[in-house]
Amino acid sequence: MAMQFYASPEQIMRDRSELARKGIARGRSAVVLSYEGGVLFVAENLSSTLHKVSEIYDRIGFAAVGRYNEFENLRRAGVRMADLNGLSYDRRDVTGLGLANAFAQTLGAIFTEQSKPFEVEICVAEVGATPEDDSLYRLTYDGSVNDEPGRMAMGGQAEAITGVLKNEHRPEMSLAEAVRAAVKALSSVGGEGGAARTIAANQLEVAVLDRRRVGRTFRRITGAALTGLLDGDASADAAPAPGRAKTPTVPTEEAKKPTTSAGSADLEGQPQEEQPGE
Amino acid sequence: MFTNAGTSSFTAFLSKVAPEMLPGRRPLPPGMAADMAPHATTIVAISASGGVVMAGDRRATMGNLIAQRDIEKVHPADAYSLVGIAGTAGIGIELMRLFQVELEHYEKIEGAMLSLDGKANRLASMIRGNLGAAMQGLAVIPLFAGFDLAAADPARAGRIFSFDVTGGPYEETGYDAIGSGSLFAKSALKKRFRAGLSVDDAVRLAVEALYDAADDDTATGGPDLTRRIYPVVMTATAEGTHRLTDAETATIAESVVSGRMENPGG
Asked: How many contacts does A have with B, using Cβ atoms within 8 A?
């Protein structure tokens, strides 16, 4: 006859935490930091199509590490919630905090109720008017939320990466400086014998929430623009242009391609110009 | 409700979690309701070399009254397409907002834009969803135009789609117009349109056509020089959608009006 052994709730939670932590630690890391012109996401990612970093709403981005299917599920949920709230109320009423709370509820419920927790760690970032106004929320597998001070690292060896990032990061950095700091932090771990290593540009997924834009602020930085930033090319700093997309899948910075969200376009460019009748 | 694998379509998602937010899902009491809400009127679209132009007058009417002088009926649907609305103004605006979210939502979920035909088909099914209300007089008819990023020849990438209350889409060649003044606008365009127009010429032609519509249709507003209310003119080209500034449309509208001082028939 099968015996039902007693396991204390503490033990169950510890086991689940351990499972989640192990799963997350196996994956490659990601960092998020604010810089002078916005919020920068850099993730180590071998795939150029299975994104770890993506857009949620006008001024809100999402970065995740861990199991792809699990954080992709959360990302879709976030996009749905943001679009629903933005349509019901107004685009300005969709906030990073609201989304972070919703993710926390979902992750917390999964952690306690399901037999296996989500092996993910995610960041919800909202870009503000200045680096001080940016908010970065770290959400872990058990649903806990932390408000991070302008920078954060997630994934395997996150503590070591955070250590490097802390030394390198300043809120008034330029984009090129921020990218180099992020890559330095990511590559500071994982080399032979714990030494630093080099990460190729095609293994990096880089995106920004551009502070100065109205409407949708999320941009991916790929191809020549990215290598320019990594090599310290100052001109690439001013005008990040993508290399990859031929037909723009998601609008990119290339050739001043339109980046307006249709829904928010009505808000754009109105305060300064085109009101001669007033 | 948010985390189900579900679909990439925002309207399909809404139909499950918040069907009351879809215009076609609201029960209407029986009877005609045609004259209870303002009507948005004329929109024209013209395909040009390397893009497409859409323009709309600014008037909304309720019976014989002017409900609004400066309504905006032409909007960007996404970065490369435009949508104009004629018919019941409230439902039209709501459908248009929903359509904008639909396109953006798909783009965010899938990481790629819908094709231009895909967008037109989506809009058709949304209009079809409003069929019940349309049969009671609360019809909404959109005009959809955009720059087709997949077109082989960029000069012919500007495409126009029309719809009826039962859906569509019907692709139009050259130009199209919707709304109460569309008969006159189309007659004017029939004589003046030439294939391969430049975008600037098409903009001028669109304002001329709206003038002709306003000339013969009381529900269409002409350029209002005293209040400085001019048609909304937008373009969609390889550079994306662009709305002409009020100063630009003012210049064009004033030149059209001064041309008509010499020759009222254009």
From this structure: 112
